[in-house]
Each structure stands twice: as C-alpha cells, then as structure tokens.
Amino acid sequence: MNTIDRRTFLTASAASVPLLPALVSASSAIEPKRSAKGPMAISSANGMRAVTKAVEMMRSGSAPVDAVVHGVAIIESDPNDMSVGYGGIPNETGVVQLDSCAMDGPMHKAGAVAAIENIKNPAQVALKVLRRTDHVLLVGEGAKQFALAHGFKSEDLLTDRARAAWLKWKENLNPNDDWLDRDQHIEKDPRQALAEELGIPYHYGTIHCSALNANGDIGACTTTSGLSYKIPGRVGDSPIIGAGMFVQNEVGSAGATGRGESLIQSCGSFQIVQHMANGDHPTEACLKVLKWIADHTKRHDLLNDKGQPNFGATLYALRKDGVYGSATMRGGASFAVHDGTEARKERCAVLYE
Length: 353
Known about the structure:
Layout lengths: L5 H7 L13 H4 L10 E5 L3 H12 L4 H13 L20 E8 L4 E9 L4 H11 L4 E3 H10 L10 H12 L18 H9 L7 E7 L5 E7 L20 E4 L3 E7 L1 H7 L1 H10 L4 H14 L17 E7 L4 E7 L3 E5 L4 E5 L1 E4 L1
Parallel strand pairs: 3-4, 10-13
Antiparallel strand pairs: 1-5, 1-11, 2-3, 2-6, 5-6, 7-8, 8-9, 9-10, 11-12
Helix pairs in contact: 3-4, 4-5, 10-11
C-alpha cells in the first residue's frame, strides 16, 4: 500500500478543503482497472474474520454486498465483541439498539435499519430492505416487524457482561452522560474517561467492510450497536448512506467508525468517494475528510486544549482498481485487509500524532 507523508499532506491542504469538489465522471478521474489479485476486502480492525469470509464467498461467486454482509455477521454474532450485535453495549436504559446499512455497487441501491431491537444480525435485515423493498431505511419497531416477517428470530441481545457494564455505568452516570451541560475545552471525552476509571467498555462500536470482486464490482456494509450508553433512539452514522458508508461502483467505496455525529455532519463517506473520483489516493481522501471534520468541530466540549477534536474517527476507502487506504484522527489505530492473498492488519495514516 502506498503511504503519504502527513506533514506534506497538511501543508498541501492548509487551505480549507471544500465540502464537495465538482463531480466528475469516473472515466475522466480514474481509469477503471480490474484488481490483478482478484477478490479483496478492507475492514475496520475488528474485521479480520469478516474480510476472510468475504473473499472466500466472492471466490465462490457471491456478490460483494452478500459477501460483506455475511462477513460482518461473524462479528455481529460474537458475544465477546461488544461493539456490534449480540453482546453490544446497550443504551442508557439497558436496551441494545442496533444500526446497519448495506449497499450494492452495480445496482447503486442501498438498504438500512436503525434503532432495531432484538435482532442479532441487523446487516442481514438491511440487505433484505435493499433486495425486497423500494425503501432505503427502516427504523425502530417497523424495522423489527419487517425482520420478523422475513424469518429473523427475536432474541435478547443483552449479555451478562454487557449488563454488568451498563449497571456500573448507571451507578456513576451524571454528569458524564449525553446531555449537554459543558462549554470548555476537554482533553478527553469525559464519558470515555469515566469508563476507563470504572474499567468498563466505552466505544462508538462499529464494523465496516468493503469488498471488490474480480469483475471490479463493489459492495459495502457498516453495522454497529452504536455509542455506549446512548440516549434511547439515538442513531449514528452507520445506517446513513453517505455518512457511515457509501459506494459508487465506477469509483470505489468508503466507510467509517468513530463519532457518528461528526460523520453525519460531514457526509464523510460520500466525501471520501468524491475525492477519489477526483484522483486522490484513498488514504489522502480519508485524511482530507478528517481535516474537514477537525476544521468544522466548533463546540468547546469536543475540543482539547490544542483546539483539536477530542474524539476519535477512523475512515476506510477502497478504490475500483484495488488500491485501498485508511486514516484516523490520532495514532494507534489499524485496519484489516485481505488483498486476495492473505488477511492482515495495517496501520492507519494519522492526522494528529
């Protein structure tokens, strides 16, 4: 994978990056190529098993969107991964509410569910919305009833481990909840700091996976249990097309993990794909969007004493020719990739050291 020098990038992009560059046709921005290595997939760091499964399925003839949905199902069904599906951290009332979306590149069609309860594999429900309806997004009880009508089982998703973490959180809740009562620079999200002090999980909890087959077609999926201990009904970026995930089959795909509000307000994944359409390397596209998010974060409680965002966001991008990349707000993050030969983890580029 090609890397770029962060200082060179920041110098070159010192001027404000426009929200959306003029859209251009894929043929004028990128010469489409088939991956020389055959099927490949990229994912967030918790997706090693997902990218392996996705590549295996594409080799057997599955469409990329089916491959990624079944890949992330491994993580959704794992009670030891507290970021998605079964065993995910609940909202502030102890209810696990899940968000997910899937998008098929060749058809340029998407499906999504938000705030769905008692359904272990929301990405599979999102795929049903994509395939069986004229809609894009179903929410709450309607999404659950749609899932039940298609044979999904209603299950209690709150494991003993997640319940214990939630109860400990409740015992120490205020003033570190999601209700705004602060207006000062804070080095670290106080809710994250409290969770670390209590020794309990706290995260934005997500897996993203994008896949490219040997024909150059793309599919992608993002699925999550959302922000730990969130206000009931809160929906993050994961089921929002263009925020937590976006696919343009002629160009590539992108996805995100981290603070969902920042990704919704930046149309993060859509921006990444449009930057790639204008010729940017996937890593450069991810860094540009992180810089845009940082430049447009104005709330004092979301900034540290350096004026930088105190929250995390990691972006992932896969171009149609098989070139891929990832970038994170600050150091320490990695991502998973299967390049058609092997699955491995690679380090993300970093906006702030």
